[in-house]
Amino acid sequence: MTWLAETAFSRRGVLLLFLTSGEFQRTMSRLIETSSKFLPPEWRRANQIRYDSAEAGRARSERLTAESRRLIEESDKAAKRLQLDADQKLEQRIYDLKFWRTELDRKLEETVQEIENLITCKSRVEKALESCSEPLRVVLQCLAERQRRVSIDLVHDEVEQELMKEQKVMEGVASLLQHTLEQTNEQIRLCRSAKYYLEKDLRDKFQAERIDDFCSALTNTSLSIDNATRQTELVVPGATVTPEEWETFSSVNIVKAERERNNGRSLRALVESLLEQTSGDMRRQHSATGTALRLQVQETKEAKGQLEEHLAKLLSEVTSQERNLEALRVAIADKEGPLKLAEARLSARSQRPSIELCHDPVQVGLLSEVKELTAHITRLKEVLAQSEMELRALNCTQLSLEEEIQVKSHSLYIDEVICTQLRQPISIHSF
């Protein structure tokens, strides 16, 4: 390097002009060219120039050596400081990763547990929904069977009202449980979505922690750093996320999982209350229908018993009326003999001759007898006719009673046998 420097040099107390080796050579060449002999001042001057040039070179070298030592010390300190800072940041990063992994692990465990609880809850809802089908089928069958009642017994009684209420309750419960099942499935899906993002975040953080652990374990003498330095390219800052975005990402996943877990807990509490309420409603309505059916059976039995009692009395009366008819016929037959006898006597006495055809007491008596016997027979025949009409009426009433008893027996068979046996196996338990 060609340069000209002017400095104060304390040695000998004079101001020296330092020249480069090229300038020194040119100066010496000019001196040699001017004369083959040199004067002593020139000789001394030449020596002085060489001394000064050597001193300047040594001073420059000393300054460069000092600057090099300073740079080496400064670079060593900077390298150690930067490496220590990088190690500390790596340790902090690993600590942050462990912290977030712990939080994510805890939230993942809670979410998995909530999913299991929701699946158990879903199973209970499905079983409750399934348990509604058989009671509803029985109710519909009972309604259909009771439609087979005949005559006056085909009445919209309390049993039918309670059966229709029970049908409405069970259909409402089934619809509500179906809607609840859909809500539970949706909540399970949301919890599984939150679980997926937690697991993905955990996998990424596990890989990042493993990489940072590897980086933290590296030293200046590690064999793998030579290949890594040749293969690693600088990461473009725009392609990464900021620490705030990094923390926000995990925080959002945790908040989402916590929100879905709380929603799941609320839904499970709602389902628990719903199952308890619906099972209670079904039990109460089932009991009310059973009570109405028992009362109806009892009332029908009482009505049938009264009809049978009246039928027994009627049959007794029919028998009595038949005996009465027989007695009337016998009485009429018994009166016909004396009447014919009296008429024969009157006919015979009407053959008396002349003055003997007298209206004597005998004639009066016979006329009176015929008249009275005829009146009695007429009255007996009227009563006989009335008795026959009454017997026919009694027979009609008997048939009506017997038909009504058959109707009641048919209704009892439907209510006491078919419906009761259909409902007997049904037991509404808590879901």
Question: How would you describe what is shown here?
Answer:
With 431 residues, this protein is an all-alpha fold. The chain folds into three domains: 5-67, no CATH class; 86-218 and 241-299, Up-down Bundle (Ferritin); 310-349 and 360-423. It has helices at residues 21-34, 40-146, 158-217, 224-231, 243-349, 361-423, and strands at residues 5-8, 15-18. Strands 1-2 form a two-stranded antiparallel sheet. A hairpin with a 6-residue loop joins strand 1 and strand 2 (15-18). Helix 2 runs antiparallel to helix 3 (158-217) and helix 3 (158-217) runs antiparallel to helix 5 (243-349). 16% of the residues are buried. The model is unreliable at 1-21 (pLDDT under 50).
